[in-house]
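LAB NOTEBOOK - FOLDING QUEUE
OPERATOR: T.R.
BATCH SIZE: 2
PURPOSE: Compare the predicted structure-token outputs for two unrelated chains run back to back under identical settings.
PRIORITY: normal
REVIEWER: second-year student, initials M.K.

ITEM 1
FIELD SEQUENCE / FIELD STRUCTURE:
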Amino acid sequence: MATRQSTIDFILEQISEAGVVSARKMFGEYAVYCEGKVVALVCDDQFFLKPTNAAKAFMKEYEEGYPFPGAKAYILIPGDKWDDSQWLTQLVKMSAAELPAPKKRISKPKSGVKKK
């Protein structure tokens, strides 16, 4: 089951005060970005936050889940917590602050040069 657009729209609206937030669709699921960093995944209409020390300390008690088979464990944010915009925003902001900046992509030269 793929994530519904309405789910991702709601989550992005709830965390809009965390900074520059966006989502990118990947294989029917979504990566959630804050300030250019992937902070979470939304898979099967479930919100999986990257496990940072700040998030774990803030939540104190949390459940781990796996966004897809073979994935590392993430913090599963229960749906009833999504309604608390201030709480969710703070959680995303502190997680993003702890995550490293994305690596710069290096462009490869275009192949396709014709040989004579």
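ITEM 2
FIELD SEQUENCE / FIELD STRUCTURE:
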Amino acid sequence: MNTQKKLLEIIGDFDTAMLVTHATDGTIDARPMAVAQVTEEGDLWFVTDRHSGKVAELTLDSDVAVTMQSSNKFVALSGKAVAVDDQQKLEELWQESWKVWFPKGKASPSIILLRIETSEGEYWDNSGAAGAKYLIQAGKAYLQGERAQTDSTTNASVSL
């Protein structure tokens, strides 16, 4: 199995992610973000307000983490965030639902794109047959008072 392809497939299942940055006071800050696009290379695109705290944080430290979670799939990514002021790319990515945050739409002067240049990713996939196998193993371990084995979970670390 091509683990990079599998990671990209799983990332494509998500429409929201948690973007984690370093706050200006050195603490960790996380917020949910709508995923605008996932590229074939594993980079992610988001839309945000150029005057937001996250954009200010990224000027001081561009290292970020991105996490995604459903009931049976999990992703953790790390990389660099870059603010991109590109009207053509915004036109390509624009979703009408974003007018909730940008009432003037694509013409909003405060809108800016964030590109996350991912360098590493990790996933855990408990869906399908692997998930069923894990549930059986976990149930058996519970009944026997033992620790569940995680060998049935599909997981991998990937350099992107």
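REVIEWER COMMENT (ITEM 2): The first helix runs from residue 3 to 11.
FOLLOW-UP: none requested
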